């Protein structure tokens, strides 16, 4: 129940909803039950029963029954039985009208509550996900995250909010029905309520099994979304390796699992409704036999009209009771989804700012790594005792074999990860003491894979900055991108497709460089920005990078050594350690040097 109420708390502000919702629900239930209690005087008139006369007007306007009996008696005396029949029908009509007005009002309030809760919950999940550290996204499947934000939140809306409605509106209706039944005949009502404990035990047993099926179903759905995301995103590989059958079989396995889990959940959920109905019918049969025998033997104070009204009202009791039962059964799927959502909301980023962190707005002296070691969650060190200094204005290159730790070093500087031991400082300040926002604001990052969005070229370069077209064009010209942009159908307003698929690799890379130029950062991190390009594209991108690197401090991860020969210092990284350092010419002079071997292999 803790998670249930926590999910409801996202509908804040609750004060403006709960009070009017409770009031309208109570009034809707009150007038709804009143419609059936009015059957008694109506039947008395129709069956020509003796009608109690009330000569004196009740003093309190809240004594509803006495007020009704008084006015009913007055109408009966003045206008006869047909007039009394008209009076009762008129009161019933007004009661039905008021019941439905208040019912609609409560439903309208509930829909606003649901919309507010779902919106706030989805925003909270997305906000927390965006702020999680980079390592989280490396370990988590993207489809699973999307499933939690979309389908799990939707499931909470469909079941949790509806349960809240049943727990309030239907509960009020149930209470008013029971109260009216006790008022008509307390002994018959006690006999009828024997069914409730039996139903409760049965439904609680179902609920335990349903929670398990619901959890499995939502996980299977997440797997399906992840599989579709991976398959559609890698369709070139799927078709290139003729792996359609393999992907189809994987999807079939997950789809069958999802089908079985959802069928099991639905079968158990739907079992509660016929069970409740069967129990209700048998209780009504029991009441008919028991109450009818008392009336026939003259042992009951109930009149025939009161007994018929009792049966009619009791038949209505089963509806809110069944709705409450069904709602709590359906809530198990929502609770399973809610647990997955709250798990994501409660997930705290491993990289967090200190309380009152320092802020930096400029880079003045140097970046220094001091005895830095690092390990991912697997536990094995991927960096050991890394030491280097990047002075302002210098270009430092990282080279070495794949998997040696070059990209990990580059990820540590903007603090995507924290070192296991040692420290990285900027202008003498440990970056763990600096706010992440201000640290990354002075850095521009260009990666091997250009990360673009399904938006216009203008928005991809501006990327959230409030700037004009002239500034974007200036950045594009420096990045050697302006000419090809102007050749697009709509120029800077051309939409480039999912991840920029409408552009070539070199064009995508030049857009990402233009985005970095626009930010005008004093520090650049270039992670193999030209390694995936053809010769012509590499030349254009390299020219753009050269323009970008002017008067900036740059850390370059290089695959092709020809691109970093002019670096101020080259660090050779191998198996998590810096094994050589120096300029291009200095490293070539080392006998049996690792850099010299790399250079020889690339010159072949």
Automatic annotation (TrEMBL):
Keywords attached to this entry: ATP-binding, Membrane, Nucleotide-binding, Transmembrane, Transmembrane helix
InterPro entries: AAA+_ATPase (IPR003593), ABC1_TM_dom (IPR011527), ABC1_TM_sf (IPR036640), ABC_transporter-like_ATP-bd (IPR003439), ABC_transporter-like_CS (IPR017871), P-loop_NTPase (IPR027417), Type_1_exporter (IPR039421)
UniProt cross-references to Pfam families, sorted A to Z: ABC_membrane, ABC_tran
SMART domains found in the cross-reference section: AAA
Residue ranges constituting the ABC transporter domain according to the UniProt record: 367-600
Transmembrane intervals: 17-47, 82-102, 174-203
Record membrane topology: Multi-pass membrane protein
Subcellular locations according to the entry: Cell membrane
UniProt protein name: ABC transporter related protein
Organism of derivation: Emticicia oligotrophica (strain DSM 17448 / CIP 109782 / MTCC 6937 / GPTSA100-15)
Superkingdom assignment: Bacteria
SUPFAM superfamilies referenced in this protein's UniProt entry, alphabetically: ABC transporter transmembrane region, P-loop containing nucleoside triphosphate hydrolases
